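Task 17 of the worksheet. Students: predict the tertiary structure of the chain below and write it out as structure tokens. Keep your answer in the requested format; marks are given for formatting as well as content.
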Amino acid sequence: MTRASEAPSTDETEVGSYFVANYPPFSVWSPEAIVADARPALDRAPAGVPLGLYLHIPFCRKRCHFCYFRVYTDKNAREVAGYLDTLVGEWALYAETRALAGRPLDFVYFGGGTPSFLSTSQLDSLVSRLTAITPWTDAAEITFECEPGTLTEPKLAAIRGMGVTRLSLGVENFSDDLLELNGRAHRTPEIARAYTAARALGFPQINIDLIAGMLGETDENWRQCIERTLALDPDSVTIYQMELPFNTTISGDKLHGRGQFSDPVASWATKRRWVAEAFEALEAAGYHVGSAYTAVKNPATTKFVYRDRLWEGADLVGLGVASFGHINGVHLQNLDKWETYSEAVGRGELPLGRAYRPTDDERLIREFILQLKRGALRPGYFREKYGVDIAGRFGEPLASLERDGHLAERSAERLALTRDALLQVDVLLQRFFLPEHRDIRYT
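Model answer:
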């Protein structure tokens, strides 16, 4: 894996992790911390922060060549049903803990994999059983990820009936050739049908995901992707820059010289340019850039509660194989194999695989670097919550950003990155890691 302190060694997209999702790096989490830290955290009263629920639905019609998540494409109907039973059983176990019992849910996120892979009846059954344990009728946000080709009008109506407020369509690209080359299961006619049907059902927010730099991407095709996105007029657009973690098909091909993929992944400079062009076009159409990856049409009404709550230290229960969570200041990850995960819940045990209890300083760093992904943050937040002056605590890395021309504003009220810095923020964040975390594997 790319080590935590490294920027890409060349402008080429090499194999290794790039995106910073959490802190400290996952490689310092351990099974030993389950007994020492995770179980005591679950046995403590809650710390007065919002609570979220993440459900990992790990099923897909195809595995994308760039996918690095725990997903399955070979499970039959009986196995899928068994997994959903296990999710419900896991949630029931959590609901009995002192840290979770009786707490209302502030946000819910159906992720994957492909949550929309499930049938309408499977979704109805899963939601009715989960909400019988803990209702989410008062949640501020319920997000549901979809692959356009798995959606029908009845299924979309069922998803809307679940109370989903934020529908996220994994479009990725509008070229059938590129979708095929990168292993995506859907095609462009399905995008239009799904989007039109979702709009007719009145989802409060529809988000579209795009990926800059997929295999075969060109300047002309990317320009067309931006134009087609603007024509749909979604409430928000999320754009990721293609990366190659070790466990993707493309990475394996690249490392072992199999020669399956002749098209290169675009360079980092090209991907940053493409995202910059997309943001400029979106801003010209009235959108507002809200993070390194997102633009929203109306910031007053279009939020991403899941992201913002987590970046401010909310609790999160992660249900499902390999899922991540955070309870009472302790990071948790479930067992990452289908069999061991399911067997643990079957025994009546929470299926924890590893954990980590960060220090107060590590918690501060985590919230600081994640909030910096929004492009700007408020130093007063950290004074109020941690009693820390970030200008003093992060003096050296902030000075390095300033020397390199990456700061657009630095004052007592606001710290802001330039647009160019925002587009490479995941590399810049590593300057704020503690020394012991800079030369280790991120995952």
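Marker's comment: Residues 1-9 have pLDDT under 50 and may be disordered. The chain has two domains: 1-10+361-443, 26-309.
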